[in-house]
Amino acid sequence: MSSPVADAVTAVALFSGTNVDDMLLISLFSAYARSGSAPLKNWHIWAGQYLGFGALIAASALIGRGLALAPEHWLWLLALIPLGIGIVTLAKALVARSREEESRPPPPRSAWGVALITIIDGADDLAAYTPFFATAGASRIWVTCVMFVVCVAAWCVVGGRLTSHPRITAAIDRHDWWILPAAFIFIGIYVLLTTLKIV
After folding, report:
1. pTM for the full predicted model
2. From CA 160, how far away is CA 124, in angstroms rounded?
3. Using one digit for the tens of pLDDT, what is the confidence trace for 121-151?
4. Which residues contact 145 (CB under 8 A, 6 or more apart)?
5. Of 7, 69, 133, 141, which has the most beta carbons under 10 Å away?
6. Which residues, in sequence order, are CB contacts of 185 under 8 Å at separation 6+?
């Protein structure tokens, strides 16, 4: 049986691994807000992040709890979703990395714009969060949701400060091609071990 501390650590790892790209978006939004060239403000970024992630988490939890009604001996199949996405994404990144340029959406102008981009950018998170919520117990879900709330705040603070550290931003941008696929693979393995009651 897992402890609240272990659940909290797992939640932080889950959030961090699937939201490296969002950290870069927040950095870009913060730089845009600081420039004063548009009506985007820092509070728009915070509000938009919470609105966007709230929608993603709610959708993942609803879908996940619906899947949890499936026969228990079939739940291990859920692990194949993030595992497959992680392997395929990593393989594509390895093949196309030398010539691929990642495109970023244009900076938004309001909290709703930030929320929309957060949802679009985090749509792939559904593949990671849904199996997790489908296999987690009530206490783990509550701990995860609380930690996600904390992580969003941390992301907004750190992402805002990254604009003053271009080397850090460049390092994240240079390595995020493998961090996200690796996170999906880890999540798939974790869900697989959990559903098969190996851990």
Report:
1. 0.67
2. 23
3. 776 677 778 888 888 888 888 999 999 999 9
4. 57
5. 133
6. 82, 83, 86, 87, 90
